[in-house]
Task: inverse folding
């Protein structure tokens, strides 16, 4: 009997439940899809590297799932409480008919159970379908072989989804039971009769608060953009965030009071058609909904920023690959020894340090160089006197006060012009010429470029190995010597060849391409290159663990394996970097999409639920307007405006927030670069329009049905 | 083509505002047919104040709903002026409703989010009356109904009588051909009811507003110039006030009500 009642109740309030149910299904589906990625990719043939990246990715998504479950849990609890409240009268009638509170709780329990089971099943069904698309997407991303397509259903993800959502539903049931046991019959029966008092807020107070809130918001905007340099520690971002949250609330609070006042004073607009009705509707609700609108606004803001930032990082990573990793392999090896190291190192270890990259490979018996082409070798020098602080000259103090966190004692990298040009040619970067007394700086880390440009514009002269040099250009030139997935070169000083002194070389680098065209051949060479890190590839190790090396002067020296191991070249390859970049990009895109979609459906569903119940409450009012002779089109327009404003208001402020949020993220994500920002913002807008706009239309058309009445 | 029916009565030119011609309204299926209205015909002239009386379930509200185009008749015709409103559809219906009719309901039906002023003005703004013309009209109609001090109040701040007079102001501000009132005193105490009915009479007598009122209360009906009785969906009787005063007319009504079967008199 109770079960029947529950079923009928659900069917009856289906109008209220549609959006809720739809959101649950989407939530379950999205949750499943992002947790099923690992199982979806198990079958794919990918390199060990990629496998590792996928593992990292699933771990990251799994921890994000915990956060996501909190967001969804909040939504579900809130929405169900909201829907329950709308049925107070129904419960009141049950009580007057002699039904006990325990039975009513039971009805609600059954209802939640039913909705839970149906939404889980439907969501998993949808999710299983979507995750097939997802695996195609992942395969495409990692260029994995998809010829052996198989339908995969992830039991792990399925169980996880069921577990997480069951917990959420149980929380809902607990809340329901508490709610029912606490309420009194008279309140239930009279729930509908409350006459909401219309109070106009003091307009001057509103204006004052609006101005104050805008000022605070403006200052917070300033802090995260123009004042970015002062945010040197993570905790300093908290004040502007808090200011943003508080001012968002206050702006909606004051605007809700002002909007009505302003339009009311424009009599021509206020008394046209149903405008007065629409506006009163909005302002009567906005008073009680300021908090939820603020929350929705902030959620939209987070969505927009996360999505566009994540997508832009992904775009940049993929777009920059050719530019950043132009050579197949780059090796670097320390060859200089600092004074401190000299004291702690054994003599034999120091000798290994002195070996060049080529010598090391020859020593362990790996024939590498026959399969490399376009080999460029170069050296990086250091002048202990030439620290970063020293290059700033007179500006040091003022810059130091602004950017307290930079390493001003770091010794600068110096490179000879001819070697730099050779490397730049491989990378496809600009090459330069220098007069005897000139230097230039190459860098691509934007905030360092900005700082360095200040001194270059002043023509700061530097003393390098005793030579006084003046800058050739009044700005940093774009360039780098180390391949990496992102723009991290903080600055290298390029000087004429004659300036550098051999004794001060501390690092050797070697760039090369693989002498192969096909991907498989390249991978083979890659294995050889990387092989130096695995001792079992070494050919001429004697039984006692020593390696004989013929030195440049013809003498033969013995080195221990241990010493050699401590000084192997660091290897960056194009394949490694590209896999890391693709993986990183994929991770970013997934995180952005995951969080974005969850936040969007949560906030849109909240709004939709509120508006739908509002429409149900307003049914009588619309009916009355119809009796007064208002056309259907007039009513629909009024409804459209009313719902539209409620959807638009948080979105507009969120858009303004996002402009500054994205400006902020450009600073934060500088190392990645933000080349694809416009594209990713466009993608974000599309996703937003599809989901948020979809909810809006769903709400509008359902509301239209509701007010259509008889 | 039905034209204005003009009857010479003394030297006053009478014009038929409403002509109801054999309307029927059936509910239910063929096996269990409920005849809510069964062949009802009558006419209302300009400047008349007509009360329709009947017991609960006699069909009086259905009749009003049909005239106000909220409900559709099963057969028959209703003419308002020279328009057959049973033939109207969609937005023509809405246009007719907002231009020709004024409504007063038992439960006032004011919009609780709007002030009295805005409630009255809404009827005009739905008709796209420019805002500049609204002010003067609202003020004058509020004065007629004695709610000029209530204009800035919200419905929850007003008494039932005040609310009903505001609703009345809203109904007549568009100068409709016909004002339809559905149990207008139903939710009022006797003092407020009397005050409202005095206003009705004033509107009818001084401004010439045509009023068609549905009620089951003999006292309320005694304010009208003519009372039409219906029973079980059929016209039962009709009495005119003529030269009687209100008290004499009231007694005549009571007589008919007694004849009707007594169930109406319960409401006294």
Result:
């Amino acid at each position: 009997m109770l079960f029947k009642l529950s079923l009928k109740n659900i069917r009856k309030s289906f109008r209220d439940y549609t959006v809720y149910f739809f959101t649950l299904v989407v939530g379950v589906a999205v949750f499943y899809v992002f947790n099923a990625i690992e199982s979806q990719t198990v079958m794919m043939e990918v390199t060990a590297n990629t496998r590792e990246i996928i593992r990292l990715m699933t771990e990251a998504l799994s921890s994000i799932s915990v956060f996501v479950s909190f967001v969804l849990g909040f939504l579900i609890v809130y929405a169900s409480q909201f829907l329950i409240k709308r049925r107070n009268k129904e419960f009141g009638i049950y009580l007057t008919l002699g039904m006990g509170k325990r039975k009513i709780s039971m009805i609600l329990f059954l209802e939640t159970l039913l909705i839970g089971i149906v939404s889980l099943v439907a969501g998993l069904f949808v999710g299983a379908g979507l995750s097939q698309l997802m695996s195609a997407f992942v395969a495409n991303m990692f260029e994995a072989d998809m010829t052996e397509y198989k339908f995969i259903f992830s039991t792990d993800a399925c169980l996880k989804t069921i577990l997480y959502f069951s917990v959420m539903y149980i929380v809902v049931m607990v809340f329901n039971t508490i709610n029912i046991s606490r309420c009194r019959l008279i309140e239930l029966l009279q729930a509908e009769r409350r006459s909401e008092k219309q109070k106009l807020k003091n307009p001057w107070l509103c204006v004052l608060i609006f101005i104050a809130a805008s000022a605070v918001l403006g200052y917070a905007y300033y802090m995260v953009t123009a004042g970015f340099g002062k945010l040197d520690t993570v905790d300093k971002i908290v004040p502007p965030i808090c200011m943003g949250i508080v001012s968002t609330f206050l702006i909606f609070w004051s605007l809700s009071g002002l909007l009505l006042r302003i339009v009311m004073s424009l009599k021509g607009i206020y008394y046209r058609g149903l405008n007065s009705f629409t506006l009163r509707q909005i302002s009567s609700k906005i008073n009680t909904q300021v908090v939820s609108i603020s929350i929705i606004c902030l959620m939209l803001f987070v969505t927009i920023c996360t999505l566009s930032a994540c997508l832009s990082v992904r775009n940049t990573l993929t777009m920059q690959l050719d530019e950043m990793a132009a050579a197949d392999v780059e090796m670097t090896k320390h060859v200089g020894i600092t004074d401190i190291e000299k004291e702690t190192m054994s003599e034999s270890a120091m000798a290994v340090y002195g070996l060049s990259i080529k010598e090391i490979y020859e020593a362990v018996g790996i024939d590498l160089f026959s399969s490399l082409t376009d080999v460029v070798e170069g050296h990086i020098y250091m002048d202990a006197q030439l620290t970063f602080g020293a290059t700033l000259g007179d500006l040091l103090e003022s810059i130091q006060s602004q950017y307290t966190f930079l390493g001003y004692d770091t010794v600068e990298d110096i490179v000879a012009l001819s070697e730099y040009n050779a490397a730049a040619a491989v990378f496809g970067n600009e090459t330069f010429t220098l007069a005897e007394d000139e230097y230039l700086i190459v860098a691509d880390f934007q905030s360092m470029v900005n700082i360095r440009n200040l001194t270059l514009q002043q023509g700061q002269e530097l003393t390098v190995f005793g030579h006084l040099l003046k800058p050739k250009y009044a700005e940093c030139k774009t360039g780098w010597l180390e391949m990496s997935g992102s723009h991290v070169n903080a600055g290298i000083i390029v000087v004429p060849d004659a300036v550098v002194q051999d004794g001060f070389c501390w690092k050797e680098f070697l760039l090369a391409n693989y002498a192969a065209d096909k991907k498989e051949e390249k991978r083979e060479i890659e294995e050889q290159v990387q092989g130096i890190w695995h001792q079992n590839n070494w050919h001429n190790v004697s039984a006692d663990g020593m390696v004989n090396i013929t030195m440049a002067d013809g003498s033969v020296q013995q080195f221990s394996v241990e010493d050699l191991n401590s000084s192997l070249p660091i290897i960056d390859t194009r394949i490694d970097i590209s896999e890391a970049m693709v993986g990183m990009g994929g991770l970013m895109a997934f995180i952005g999409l995951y969080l974005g979609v969850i936040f969007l459906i949560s906030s849109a569903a909240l709004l939709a639920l509120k508006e739908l119940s509002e429409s149900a409450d307003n049914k009588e009012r619309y009916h009355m307007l119809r009796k007064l002779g208002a056309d259907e089109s007039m009513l629909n327009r009024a409804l459209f405006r009313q719902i539209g404003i409620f959807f638009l208001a948080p979105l507009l402020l969120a858009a303004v927030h996002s402009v500054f949020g994205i400006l902020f993220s450009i600073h934060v994500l500088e190392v990645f670069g933000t080349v694809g920002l416009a594209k990713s913002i466009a993608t974000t807008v599309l996703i937003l329009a599809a989901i948020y706009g979809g909810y809006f239309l769903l709400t509008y058309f359902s509301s239209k049905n509701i007010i259509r009445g008889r | 083509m039905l034209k204005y029916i003009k009857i010479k009565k003394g030297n006053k030119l009478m014009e038929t505002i409403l002509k109801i011609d054999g309307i029927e309204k059936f509910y239910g299926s063929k096996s269990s047919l409920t005849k809510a209205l069964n062949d009802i015909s009558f006419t209302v002239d300009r400047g008349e104040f007509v009360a329709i009386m009947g017991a609960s379930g006699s069909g009086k509200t259905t009749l009003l709903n049909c005239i106000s185009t909220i409900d559709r008749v099963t057969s028959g015709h209703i003419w308002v002026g020279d328009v057959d409103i049973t033939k109207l559809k969609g937005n023509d219906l809405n246009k007719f409703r907002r231009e020709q009719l004024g409504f007063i309901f038992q439960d006032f039906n004011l919009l609780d989010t709007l002030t009295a002023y805005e409630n009255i003005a809404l009827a005009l703004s739905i008709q796209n009356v420019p805002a500049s013309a609204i002010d003067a009209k609202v003020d004058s109609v509020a004065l007629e109904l004695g709610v000029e001090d209530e204009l800035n109040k919200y419905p929850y701040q007003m008494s039932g009588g005040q609310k009903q007079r505001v609703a009345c102001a809203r109904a007549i501000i568009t100068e409709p051909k016909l004002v339809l009132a559905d149990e207008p005193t139903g939710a009022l105490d006797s003092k407020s009811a009397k005050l409202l009915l005095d206003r009705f009479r004033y509107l009818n007598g001084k401004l010439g507003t045509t009023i068609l009122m549905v009620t089951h209360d003999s006292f309320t009906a005694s304010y009208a110039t003519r009372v039409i009785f219906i029973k079980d969906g059929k016209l039962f009787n009709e009495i005119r006030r003529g030269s009687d005063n209100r008290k004499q007319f009231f007694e005549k009504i009571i007589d008919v009500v007694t004849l009707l079967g007594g169930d109406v008199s319960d409401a006294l």
User: Anything to note?
Assistant: The longest helix of chain A spans residues 574-627. The two ends of chain A are 30 Å apart (CA to CA).
